[in-house]
Design goal:
The protein is an alpha/beta fold. The chain folds into three domains: 161 residues, Adenylosuccinate Synthetase, subunit A, domain 1 (Adenylosuccinate Synthetase, Chain A, domain 1, 3-Layer(aba) Sandwich), CATH 3.40.440.10; 93 residues, Adenylosuccinate Synthetase, subunit A, domain 2; 178 residues, Alpha-Beta Complex (Adenylosuccinate Synthetase, Chain A, domain 3), CATH 3.90.170.10. The protein has 16 helices and 21 strands. The radius of gyration is 22 Å and the shape is globular. The model has no long low-confidence stretch (mean pLDDT 96). Magnesium ion binds next to loops.
Length: 455
């Protein structure tokens, strides 16, 4: 039977980011995972930071899908991920210490996922150093690991199962060119022997979790089991759709997540795109609705409370500091034009907007909240995110619609009717500009602090 007919009841929910990351994808992914059988991380690596709450404790996960906290789930790290075994083992440890049961029994790792080595992190630093305009990467070796994958010298999880000697030989080949570069920069040559021993030990720790993920996923698909893909990064960080060169090194939009998760288009039940009620970005690159803040070189400068800029006020109200790197995030208003422009990349069915409560507090503090509904760009008014910003050197200037005053939302609100009028106006404005239905509305920090609309 053709694939098309086999998968007539698709069961995979794809959760992805609608802006520049840090939208709270972990929160909605966890909610979806509550009744899921298989949860998957598909792309990126330890550059992602997803907070999940387990037994009232906050856990920052970077590689393992947050749905692992539910005891019925199988969790898969898919082939699109670049995996740092050191980071992985720490996370397993953190989860077990927090009381999550049978992590090692339920966690599966695609043998085809590529590995991150310490030399990738060194190269990440070096690449940034050689740029006139550094990207502000997370320094987790993500770009260089994907570069090795593309150059066909990358090592994969399967290689951890090789005898140490053979692993060493592969590391030697993978680092031959890199060592020349390191020599020029006075960086110590890669010790392939030592690394092979270390990674061979990692292999001994994780070999029982390594699987042929095609077969695993196929079993879940055939049995019509619920699958959740926890996306990492976001639309504007995608290496094709995003603000190149200020992007990450993977395709983190929906089609990229499918490849990374060993799925195909017939498996997709729905796509949920997550955004915040205000926007944030870490690292360099355009950010049309960004507000001024006391941030320099990834640090918050000292300032008196009465001198706070709007960007500072948003950052502090939202607690916008990186889970992976601790960096303060650049903050600004909701950009509905950007979200509308993500349609082709993400194929969104429903939007989830987090921090609608925080936006209400901001509105009360600042007198109003703003939503970008159009841009001024190159002497014209446009309604899409332009793709030649690097060429023109012009960041689109937002045209805002303002909603006067703010609102209070109780984190216990569970129905749309409980929202104050101004909050409803915000949601309706977003829906009318983006042409996407807002099904999920975040009203507080906990996973359950969410209004789910029937639609
Ligand atoms: P989650 O999944 C926010 C950003 C970095 C940098 C650029 C490239 O938590 O939303 P990289 O280390 O990937 O080469 O850095 O991408 N970036 C993220 N920003 N959240 C993330 O993930 C990010 N992953 C990468 O700050 O600007
Ligand atoms: Mg993040």
């Amino acid at each position: 039977m053709a694939n098309k007919f086999e998968s007539l009841i698709p069961t995979a929910v794809i959760v992805n980011g609608g802006a520049w990351g840090d939208e709270g994808k972990g929160k909605i992914a966890s909610r979806e995972a509550k009744y899921a059988d298989l949860v998957i991380r598909a792309t990126g690596g330890a550059n992602a930071g997803h907070t999940v709450v387990f037994n009232g404790k906050k856990l920052g996960l970077h590689l393992i899908p947050g749905g692992i906290v539910y005891p019925q789930t199988t969790a898969l790290i898919g082939q699109g991920v670049v995996l740092d075994p050191d980071s992985l083992l720490k996370e397993i440890n953190d989860l077990e210490n927090a009381g999550v049961k049978d992590v090692e029994g339920r966690l599966k790792i695609s043998g085809r996922a590529h590995l991150v080595f310490p030399y990738h992190k060194d190269k990440d630093q070096l690449e940034e150093k050689y740029k006139d305009n550094p990207i502000g990467t997370t320094k987790r070796g993500i770009g260089p690991a994907y570069e090795d994958k593309d150059a066909r010298v990358g090592l994969r999880v399967y290689d951890l199962l090789l005898p140490a000697k053979e692993l060493e030989a592969k590391i030697v080949v993978a680092t031959r060119m890199l060592n020349q570069l390191f020599k020029i920069d006075g960086i110590t040559e890669v010790d392939a022997h030592h690394l092979a021993e270390l990674y061979h030990e990692y292999g001994k720790r994780i070999w029982q979790m390594v699987v042929n993920a095609d077969i695993l996923v196929e079993e879940f698909v055939r049995a019509r089991k619920k699958i959740v893909v926890e996306g990492a990064q976001a639309y504007r960080l995608d290496k094709d759709w995003g603000d190149y060169p200020n992007v990450t090194s993977s395709n983190c939009v929906t089609p990229g997540a499918l490849i990374g998760a060993h799925l195909n288009q017939y498996d997709v039940e729905r796509v949920i795109t997550v955004v915040k009620a205000y926007f944030s970005r870490v690292g360099e690159g355009p950010f049309p609705t960004e507000q001024l803040a006391h941030i320099k070189n990834d640090k918050v400068l000292k300032y008196k409370p009465e001198e706070a800029y709007v960007g500072d006020i948003i950052r502090e109200a939202g607690g916008e500091y990186g889970v992976s790197t601790g960096r303060p995030r650049r903050c600004g208003w909701f950009d509905a034009v950007l979200v509308k422009s993500s349609k082709r990349a993400l194929g969104t069915d429903y939007l989830c907007i987090n921090h609608v409560d925080t936006l209400g507090i901001l509105g009360k503090k600042l007198g109003s909240v703003k939503v970008c509904v159009k841009y001024h760009y190159q002497g014209k008014i446009i309604e899409y995110y332009p793709d030649d910003i690097e060429l023109t050197g012009e960041v689109p200037q937002p045209i805002y619609e303002e909603i006067e005053g703010g609102w209070d939302i109780s984190s216990t609100a569970r129905s749309y009717d409980e929202l104050p009028e101004n909050a409803k106006r915000f949601i309706e404005l977003v829906e009318s500009v983006t042409e996407m239905p807002v099904k999920f509305i975040g009203v507080g920090p906990a996973n359950d602090d969410l209004i789910v609309r029937n639609m």
